[in-house]
């Protein structure tokens, strides 16, 4: 009798059937488990203004630029050397010795490695043969910069990096947030099948805007990191002096009277930068978003600052490393175009020509020059930027 009471009546309407109600409710809850965190995150995002987003992003950029700058210097040196920049000893020939020796001569940048058995002695200074100053790998660059130039030179270009990172990321991440939310709402109502591709589109648009806005500072940073300044008494040029040197050199070399033509050199290589950064952002965000959402789903409604930090750093580290490795050939092309010292050639170079030159000179190995330090830099950098940005947003949202 009890069993017959519990058996469902096949003619009973669905809305009157309690078991169907329960099953439907359970199915609805299970189907929305992956959507709720996204909607809650979106709602919390929408409560934050552009100023709070920019503040979060600027803090993340500052922290990242200081921590990973040495790896950026190492990567740039390896790529510049492959492009033909000479790092040989400035006193390795007689003309340079005649120019350098004098009462104010400082040898701090010219010291030979104590393990080098081939050094010749000039006065009281041991001088290595030129090949001792060639970089043979990531760790070798670290060692030789510290030994020959000093530990602080690993942070060469940090001021440019900060001047670049704060406004760039301050534009990039807030724009990505706003575009992602807008594109998601647009696609969910009109073209639901396109929603998974929203991070690719939002990341590409945001990165292109940030890159075009601050490109001259990026040019200055690459040149500051690539070219070695000899003599510890000589102060390396800063961002402004580096940019003035680029402009004055092109005007002198090409006898250009038109100011626009002279200042156009400050944007040479921007095509290569966009060709690198737009795919980087597309790969990075399309990888990061699914990983981050899965990790945050595990935490659920109990998310705190520590869990937000861990989920975002893990997702950012993996996505940044993958994107950096995939776009390394374009990074090599960007570096070559930015360090080109012949202004006439610099204005005529294209990214395609540069890639063909790299392939002809070094093959696949040349295209992936510096991939080690690039990946080692990008993984932590993206992880730090994204996690710091999201944690600050989380804290600001909790305060609201």
TrEMBL record:
Organism from which the protein derives: Rhamnella rubrinervis
Family statement drawn from the similarity comment of this UniProt entry: Belongs to the mitochondrial carrier (TC 2.A.29) family.
Solcar repeats: 48-182, 194-294, 307-395
PANTHER family for this protein: FI19922P1-RELATED (PTHR45760:SF2)
GO annotation (BP), single: mitochondrial transmembrane transport
Localization, UniProt: Mitochondrion inner membrane
Listed name of the protein: Mitochondrial carrier protein MTM1
Keyword Repeat on entry: yes
Keywords tagged on the record: Membrane, Mitochondrion, Mitochondrion inner membrane, Repeat, Transmembrane, Transmembrane helix, Transport
InterPro entries registered for this protein in UniProt: MCP_dom_sf (IPR023395), MCP_transmembrane (IPR018108), Mtm1-like (IPR045315)
PROSITE patterns listed in its UniProt record: SOLCAR
Signal peptide annotation: none
Membrane topology value: Multi-pass membrane protein
Keyword Membrane: yes
Main location class: mitochondrion
Pfam families: Mito_carr (PF00153)
GO terms under cellular component: mitochondrial inner membrane
